[in-house]
Structures are given as C-alpha cells and as structure tokens.
C-alpha cells in the first residue's frame, strides 16, 4: 500500500537527547547569569567522543538560546598525524554548522611532565582564542565518568576536599555541561548521529593511573558494589564542592582583617590562626601562599606551618615552596624565598 503520509522524522536517540539537555541547561544558566544575546560560545573540541557529542549538541542548542557557537581545536603536535586529527575534528565542527572553527598548534613544555605540559599549553591556547574571538564561554566535554575518576584518584592520594570536590560545572569562562552524563552516553550519541570520534591512544595507555582507574578500578567497583558507583562518586564531589566553597568564602571574607604587610612579605596574626578550626586555618595559609606568592601548599606544608601556632616551642623558620614562614612574636610572617629546586611558583 502506498504511504501518502509526510515523511516522519526518526525518533531522537535517548543519548542525543540527554547530551542536549546537559548543554541546554548549562547554556540557559549562563544566559541567566549574564551571557548576552548573540554572544559566541566556543566548544573545546579534541575530536574524541565526549567533545564531539558536545559540539553537535551545542550546534543544535545554542541558536535556540540566541547564542552563536564555534569551536577551538588544539593540536599538541605530540603524536605523528596530530595535525590531521585536528583538521578532521575542525571539519566535523564546520559540518555541524559551528563558526568560527579555529585550530591552534601549540608547543608543549615538559616542565611538570608531558601530561601537565599539554594541559597548560591547551588551556593557554583556548583562553587566547576565546579572548581573540570575544567568546563569552568555553564548553568542555568532561563527563560524569571523568568526575568519578578524579574523586577515586584523589581518594587514593589521600586528598582533601579541595581535590575531591572534582571539576566545577562552571569556572569563570569555562562550562562543563556533561558532568551529569555518562561516557557511554556520549559514545552512543556519536553513534546515533553518525559521528566518527577520534580514539586518543593515551586513553588506553596503562602507564597513566587515570587510565587504570577507568579500565580496571571503576569496572570492578561497579561490578562488586553496583552500577551506581560512578554516580555516587560524582555526588560526593558535588557535596564536597558545596562545603568547601562555603569554607573558602568564609576565609576570603576574613583574610583582609587578619593579614598585615610585613617587611618583604605578609604577616598573619597568631591569635586569628589559633582561634579558627583546622579546616579554616589550613585554608587561610593556602590562600595567603597562593594569592601573595603564587605558591600552592599541600597538607604536609600547612600542618607544618600550623605547628608554629599550635605547638610553639621557639622553633626556627619553615621553608615551603617559594616561601619562608617564621613566627615573630604574635605574627606568622611569610616572605618570598629565592629560586629553589622545591619551588612550585609559576
Ligand atoms: N586537543 C584539544 N583541543 C581542544 N579541546 C580539547 C583538547 N583536548 C581536550 N580538550 C577539551 O578538554 C576536555 C577534556 O579533555 P580530556 O583529554 O580529558 O578528554 P576526554 O575526556 O577523553 O574527552 P574527549 O572525548 O572530548 O577527548 C575535552 O572533552 C575537550 O572539551
């Protein structure tokens, strides 16, 4: 029998729908918090399944929220054929209707290891492109699985909330619309849309602890404890984020009052440090170190410095990355140290 009815669109794949919901919510929230009509949002596109699904959903959702959508692809130049990978990702983005699509080749330094060198170079390039194109937001494709892996890796290192709170859904220019979406969903979304993602060889390189967590640890936990483990780990991150953001705000509010300039540095009153619980005291010390000296202190450092307050026996100064910390009467004084091998400044 001839079919006279108008052609029906195939039903939308649930995976595509889920990715679009994540993007729509993130963009709507950004619009509510001031992202202007007509603003450009850029998808940071590696060509992998997560950012490819993100790019497609953004191409669909952005115009509905009166936003323009483009993409930035970074070529780290670390593997043979990386330029072709970047080019293919850029063409896919153009095919989706994203504009502009910008490819940036970067030089990766090896200071803190190739992984962190690549990350620094990537974020530097993405931020530059965002500034040059006047983009109002950059969308990253981190998923719920990435968040769960981050929490597990942090637990294994004995990290505190600053690390266990995982990646923020919004951080200045950066948005992560897929933090509630499983990686299997982005893969399914690409398949449903006929997109062919690039497979990053690093993702199967078991020298990386994240890859071992992804391929070996999380699957065992899900098998033994139930399929909700990844969601639960991501929820842990969310709760710790709420708590630690509240504590950070409290410290930011009090810091002006308890600090004073000192010769070649800054001083914090001993009594202010003594009166506050360790959770706040450690944050005060970390904030002073990062804001005044660009240095990041770990728990070992803050515990050591705190002894100048809680266990004062006339001990000498303590050297932590980039900073010398000493007790002088009723003050804890921070001064910059010259270049030293331990310094983490910069
Ligand atoms: N070379 C790149 N160019 C532009 N953006 C990138 C690049 N590499 C990573 N990103 C961005 O950072 C996000 C997280 O990067 P990561 O390397 O952890 O990728 P991933 O979780 O495997 O995601 P994907 O499947 O998109 O590669 C990506 O989803 C993407 O938004």
Automatic annotation (TrEMBL):
GO terms for molecular function: ATP binding; tRNA(Ile)-lysidine synthase activity. Its main location: cytoplasm. It holds the Pfam family ATP_bind_3. It is an enzyme of class 6 (ligase). The keyword Ligase applies. Keywords: ATP-binding, Coiled coil, Cytoplasm, Ligase, Nucleotide-binding, tRNA processing. Residues 41-215 form the tRNA(Ile)-lysidine/2-thiocytidine synthase N-terminal domain. GO terms for biological process: tRNA modification. The keyword Amino-acid biosynthesis does not apply. Residues 230-257 form a coiled coil. ATP binds at residues 46-51. GO terms for cellular component: cytoplasm. It catalyses: cytidine(34) in tRNA(Ile2) + L-lysine + ATP = lysidine(34) in tRNA(Ile2) + AMP + diphosphate + H(+). Residues 269-327 form the tRNA(Ile)-lysidine synthase substrate-binding domain. Belongs to the tRNA(Ile)-lysidine synthase family. Ligates lysine onto the cytidine present at position 34 of the AUA codon-specific tRNA(Ile) that contains the anticodon CAU, in an ATP-dependent manner. Cytidine is converted to lysidine, thus changing the amino acid specificity of the tRNA from methionine to isoleucine. HAMAP family: tRNA_Ile_lys_synt. PANTHER family: TRNA(ILE)-LYSIDINE SYNTHASE-RELATED (PTHR43033). NCBIfam families: lysidine_TilS_N. The N-terminal region contains the highly conserved SGGXDS motif, predicted to be a P-loop motif involved in ATP binding. This is tRNA(Ile)-lysidine synthase. It comes from Mycetocola manganoxydans.
